[in-house]
Amino acid sequence: MSGRQRAKTVVVLEEARQSATPRTTPAPPVEPDPLYGVVLLKTALELKRRQDGTVEEILRDVLARMRIPEAEFRAFLEQQGGLLQALGMRQR
After folding, report:
1. Burial call 5-35: b when 16+ CB within 10 Å, e when fewer
2. Mean pLDDT of the chain
3. d(C-alpha 29, C-alpha 80), whole Å
4. Which residue has the higher pLDDT, 91 or 3?
5. What is the number of other CB atoms lying within 10 angstroms of the CB of residue 73?
6. CB 59 within 8 A of CB 43
7. Is the pLDDT of residue 65 over 90?
8. Integer distance in angstroms from the first to the last C-alpha of the chain?
9. d(Cα 75, Cα 17) in Å, to the nearest integer?
10. How far apart are CA 68 and CA 35, in angstroms?
11. Helix, strand, or coil here: 26?
């Protein structure tokens, strides 16, 4: 090889291997109830109005008043990805 030439590099690509551990199947999508948006709105209004209580407590109160199962609503929120973080689902 003369001064300016470089050696050519040959890269051998391997095919992706199947992992030995079985993958978990994702949860089936939750059909969004039209009232879920109302729950979010009422929760936001309650958070603005009330200074006592946590976000979790206020959300539970709203869900109880509207008679919406908490497990189904939380499954919907999990499906929405970053929506929980946007709502600030932590102590305020």
Report:
1. eeeeeeeeeeeeeeeeeeeeeeeeebeeeee
2. 78
3. 10
4. 3
5. 22
6. yes
7. yes
8. 68
9. 32
10. 9
11. coil
Q: Measured between alpha carbons, how far is residue 13 from residues 10, 17, 18 in Å?
A: 10, 12, 15
More confident residue, 51 or 7: 51
Q: Are 55 and 90 in contact (CB under 8 A)?
A: yes
Exposed, middle or buried: residue 59 (CB in 10 Å: 0-12, 13-18, 19+)? buried
C-alpha torsion 46→89→71→52, nearest 10: -40
> Which among 30, 43, 41 has a CA at the least distance from the CA of 73?
30
Closest by CA to 27, choosing from 74, 72, 60, 75, is 75
